[in-house]
Amino acid sequence: MEIKEELELLLNNFIITKEKDKDSYYKIKSKIKKLREFTTTKLGCDIIINSSLIKLEKIPSVIDNTFKIEDFNSTKDYALFVLVIMFLEDKAKDEQFILSNLTTFISNLLATIPNKELIIDFKDYSTRKSLVDVLKYTIKLGVIKLIDGNDNLFKESIDNEALYENTGISHYIIRQFKDDIFSFKEPSDYLKISNTEDSLSKKRYFTYRSLLFYPSFNYSDFEPDVYNYFINYRNRIINDINYLLDGDLLIYDNIALLTTTEKNSRLTFPNSRKVIHDIILLVNDYIVNEIGNLTLEKFELEQLLIKIHRDNNKYFSKEYREMGDNNFFKMVTTSMEKFKLLKIEDNIYKFSPAIYLIGGKYPDDEKEDNTSFEQLSLGMEE
Prior knowledge:
Layout: H1 4-12, E1 16-17, H2 22-30, H3 32-43, E2 47-49, E3 53-56, H4 75-88, E4 96-98, H5 99-111, H6 125-141, E5 144-149, H7 153-156, E6 162-166, H8 199-213, E7 216-218, H9 224-232, H10 234-244, E8 247-252, E9 255-260, H11 275-291, E10 295-297, H12 298-312, H13 318-321, H14 325-338, E11 342-345, E12 348-351, E13 358-361, E14 374-377
Antiparallel strand pairs: 1-3, 2-3, 4-6, 5-6, 7-9, 8-9, 10-12, 11-12, 13-14
Helix pairs in contact: 4-6, 8-9, 11-14, 12-14
């Protein structure tokens, strides 16, 4: 029984609710036994399923920005999101509440915390905007519903109200831990939690999570025993990938990554519908064919991106044509970090050898009103 489509749905989505996506819900439910067999054996991750939702508990293998919520722009957004979930803990399914109930709860809760590392002041416009962004994301997940009012108006004035309804799935948003986590001080502390003491299983979980949850990974950076597992079981891993997903495992210069078909959307690069992906392909091509060096200082990369921006500006969308050099630099480097094509250490920008696998450029004879893009495979090999 094939589970390719259902596994992709689990990997592509943070959560799937029956109310918002009934077809996907029942597709996965019909093959839940086979799916669980794979996720528990290979990933060490459980699938939560009940009458309302299905969720694959994605446990990271490393701490980076891969799991970043694209709708959030600051650490305050994440803090507010957790506070919203805490507020909903005592709410019954279908129970309604107004926006001021939430803001009062947050203000009162934070007032009881002696260490004022987090300051939330709803008299501040940026804080109100942050809360609105968080609420919109929470609605998108299906955690709450907007019943009445316009939450955008709250950004303009603290006195504006909106009516919401709790859907009852907030209990399944934050990962549940069996261990005591109150002594944790760093994000990396959470990686030490393991659901098995078996050494071989730990290495298997780490390897498969790195492949399926991340765009690529440098397996030479692994601990020696994990590195040896990956090398020794490489053929079995490739067979699993070919059987379970529409993709192939590529190995290039200590980099491992999955290639997927056009129809798949899980952390895929490039996406032809995103201009930033075209720009990253341009950067890859420039670095490979003009720079020839995978390590650049910040000012060198700044000059390169200014050149790319000006040389290809006519092909970009209006947003990128009019974008200033600083914002363009930040947008490109942040996106490349997300896809593990770039690592920044002390203002030194280190590009992954994976950029040799794919690059792109606008053909020289393209007219100004034609924005077709040519993607190039550069020296691809296993």
